[in-house]
Amino acid sequence: MKLDEAKKKFIQTWGALGSQWGINKTMAQIHALLLISEEALSMEDIMEELHISRGNASMNLRSLIDWGIVFKEFKAGERREFFSSEKSIEELARKIAKERSRREIKPAIRVLKEVSDVEDQSGDAEQFKKTTSELYDFILRADNMLDKITEQKGNWITKTIYKLMT
Amino acid sequence: MKLDEAKKKFIQTWGALGSQWGINKTMAQIHALLLISEEALSMEDIMEELHISRGNASMNLRSLIDWGIVFKEFKAGERREFFSSEKSIEELARKIAKERSRREIKPAIRVLKEVSDVEDQSGDAEQFKKTTSELYDFILRADNMLDKITEQKGNWITKTIYKLMT
DNA sequence: CTGAACTTTCAAAAATAATTGAAACTTTTA
DNA sequence: TAAAAGTTTCAATTATTTTTGAAAGTTCAG
After folding, report:
1. Which residue positions in chain A have pLDDT lower than 50?
2. What percentage of chain B reaches a pLDDT higher than 90?
3. Which pLDDT does position A82 carry in this prediction?
4. pLDDT for position B28
5. InterPro entries, alphabetically (chains A, B) (predicted)?
6. Can you give the pLDDT at residue A87?
7. CATH for the A3-85 domain, from 3.90.650.10, 1.10.10.10, 3.40.50.10230, 1.50.10.140
8. Which of B157, B55, B132, B8 is nearest to A128 (CA)?
């Protein structure tokens, strides 16, 4: 495959994967573009490359920065801002995992805790409590596991697999 | 909290969590409803409980069955079909993880492999190859890890955490 | 200050995804 | 075999999410 074609395909695929996992397609595409760019890119560059509007670029860049996986860069003698992405894949994955846990999983855990504490005593209520507290326990443990995995610095995926094999 | 309120809140929350992770809200809500129902429910029951149309119920139930987390049940002397969900949370998580890996991660891995094999030799191409193959390696290993974790039968979350702590 | 260069905001428009509902289809009963 | 009971399909509609683009905002050089 030719480089240009490969780049396009990578950006498309990353974008599609993003949507399937609840992340705005353009956001994922900007991220893909920055990942494979040696140099930091200006907003103009990004708009042109992906054929998107200024507003769209601005908003999605902001989100990426909020997620902690894209950074603003300043170049000497240049007024405008440049953007570059976290280049370490491990660090990238760690940040994404942390953010999704914080924004989505932890709030859900709180609700599960809350609803599993229903006051009724009927058989129906007992069944409900049982299911929701099992779910609470499970998700809490899974989330803790995620924390454990991601807090290991350096080659955590490899380390984790190694431990799992023993 | 009262049982009815708790049920509603649980169904809402599960639905919202679904959308955030790329799963149709109604599909997640039907699943939530079945999870907390002792008895299998008919399509009518589900339509009424969630205020959704017959077509919507039918299509989303089908998806849930395709995912392997909801089953049709037949009751003696009843013409219509009843639906119930996988009740073991561990089994549920295992099935969801397996399906998402099969449908989304594995195809993405194939594309990454493909694009990281670009033929050009320029510096630009080398950088692109480097990033995409790192990503390929990483996601491949993460996916293998997921396979490893989910193939352990019985209390796999606990076992995994235990191993991680040693 | 003033205005040029650049970025952000947000209401409106466009694109995408989900939902409806009625017709077609399937299965069962009489 | 007819029709009743139930389910599925899918074109049209509705809801939701994303994107645009122009106005407002900001920063900086002269």
Report:
1. none
2. 86
3. 97
4. 98
5. HTH-GbsR_regulator, HTH_MarR-typ, MJ1563, WH-like_DNA-bd_sf, WH_DNA-bd_sf
6. 92
7. 1.10.10.10
8. B8
Q: Give the residues of chain B that fall short of pLDDT 50.
A: none
Q: Domain locations in chain A?
A: 3-85, 89-165
CB of A140 less than 8 A from some CB of B:
no
Note whether B3 contacts A35, CB cutoff 8 Å.
Answer: no
B166 near A CB under 8 A: yes
At residue B69, what are phi and psi to the nearest 5 degrees?
-115, 0
| CA angle (A65, A71, A72) in 5-degree steps | 110
Q: What is the pLDDT of residue B157?
A: 84
